[in-house]
Design goal:
The chain is built from six helices and five strands. It is of the alpha+beta class. The chain has one domain: Hypothetical upf0131 protein ytfp (Roll). The protein has a five-stranded antiparallel sheet with strand order 1-3-2-4-5. Strand 4 and strand 5 form a beta hairpin.
């Protein structure tokens, strides 16, 4: 059985939201970098979207989830952006008139306990000659208590087979839907493919 990780100290997400609002400024459209569930369930109106990549970060199913995909006693996993490598995903454009409301929505969804570290990243749009855009992304420091570190194949199998989910369902469904959405966009994530092979091992 998987031993639950220690509960992290919750951070107040309100100052991070205020900082994001000030950095964005409200004068231009808002861009968001989607690398997991925001690709297939943004929950807000998207005026424009493109496949894009960020350098210096990678997508990893390496963050404990005690609310969205698990419980405090039986945590599940969610994706985060970790330092190193490169990540392909989607940039989503939100009209500036809706930007403030969308930021509040994103905080309610992604930042209920302030675990992520929101950052504005330079995203390279892959279509045509569109210039890079500065987009909001939800990252995770390696030293965060919510970072899983390296898990074994047995630990992943235990998490994927767990029938206890969170408010948005189970880790396995979430990971599979993310992989399917990436494949539909022509994005291959070999690391995720390897992790999901543990679900059927």
């Amino acid at each position: 059985m998987l031993s639950p990780a220690p509960l992290p100290v919750s951070r107040n997400p309100a100052p991070l939201l205020e900082a994001a609002l000030q950095t964005w400024g409200g004068r231009e459209d808002l861009w968001v970098f989607a690398y997991a569930s925001l690709i297939w369930r943004p929950d807000f109106e998207v005026a424009e979207q493109h496949i894009a990549r960020v350098h210096g970060w990678h997508r990893a199913l390496a963050m404990w989830s005690r609310l969205n995909r698990g419980t405090p006693a039986r945590p599940g996993l969610v994706f985060a952006l970790l330092r190193g490598g490169m990540c392909r995903g989607m940039v989503l454009r939100v009209p500036h008139s809706q930007g403030e409301a969308v930021l509040h929505q994103l905080w309610a969804r992604e930042m209920p306990s302030g675990v992520y570290r929101p950052q504005w990243l330079r995203c390279h749009v892959e279509a045509g000659h569109t210039p890079p855009v500065r987009a909001l992304a939800f990252t995770l420091p390696h030293d965060s208590p919510s970072h899983t570190g390296t898990l074994s194949a047995a630990q992943y199998r235990a998490i994927f087979s767990d029938t206890v989910g969170g408010r948005y369902g189970h880790t396995l469904d979430y990971a599979r839907q993310t992989l399917d959405s990436l494949r539909a966009l022509g994005i291959r994530d070999r690391a995720l493919e390897k992790l999901l092979s543990h679900a059927s091992a």
